[in-house]
Amino acid sequence: MSNAIVLADEKAKLFTALSSYANALANLSDEQVPAAFDMTDQLRDMAEEVRTRLRDRILLYVQAKGRQLTDKGSMTAESGGFKLTAIPTRTGIDPKKLEALLRRKGIDPAVAMDATITYKVNMGKLAACAALTPGELTACSYDKAFRVQVDRRADSE
Question: What's the domain count of the chain?
Answer without folding.
Answer: 2
